Amino acid sequence: MRLKAPNGQEFRIDQAQDGLTQHGIILFSGATLNELKSALNDWTVPYRHPHDISPGVTVIRPKLTGEANAKGFTYEALPLHTDRAQVDNQPTIIGCLYTQEAADGGESLLVDGAEIVDAMFARRLEYIRGLHRESVFSGHPEAVFKVHTEKFPPDSADTVLICTDGFARCIVDYKILRSWADLKVDVHRHGLKEITSRIRKYEAQDRSNSSPTKFEQSDDLAAIILAN
């Protein structure tokens, strides 16, 4: 059994915990399932998964439509996700054991969750400090709020919509309306309050069988419409 970090550094099995702490991801090669379980026994506790076949072991194989969590057990590509993210007691280590090479595709992208969180906070701080064209409201002592201006010739547009990304989700993410042209018609016919209500109703419904959205609910739902 060989252990290797993403940068190529190799470890002994007794260095696995330190290597994982340092690099976030390590690769075990030339190991069977029983060998892996034995190697991890000294410093891990098996995590029980609703679909496991034994403590700490879940086999990923295609399930029939209608079976529990059929979308997660498939040969089809899955988006990046965190296993068991919806529960309070989450696993701290995720391992993948590949027993057979895929005939087509088969690539897996594994990322360090802690590194992603750090990158998200760093990116957010960039926007707070005004390093990008867009800016955000913040009470941070280094916050820089940018005000943008746009000029339109009087005859270039009869309607101007100024909205947050939360409002824009009615088209971009939620597909409540097909286009900005449709939004313009609906706003003039029913008003912004009606569109806002439809967004909130969409966010409140059970979407367990649909594509996931970025957030459970828009936290910045606002819009202003200017019309001749």
Automatic annotation (TrEMBL):
* Molecular function terms from GO: oxidoreductase activity
Keywords, A to Z, come to:
Iron, Oxidoreductase
Ranges in coiled-coil conformation: none
For the keyword Oxidoreductase, the answer is yes
Q: Which residues form the TauD/TfdA-like domain?
A: 13-140
Task: Show the stretches that span the lipid bilayer.
Answer: none
Task: Report the superkingdom from the record.
Answer: Bacteria
Protein name per its UniProtKB record: TauD/TfdA-like domain-containing protein
Taxonomic classification, please?
A: Bacteria, Bacillati, Actinomycetota, Actinomycetes, Streptosporangiales
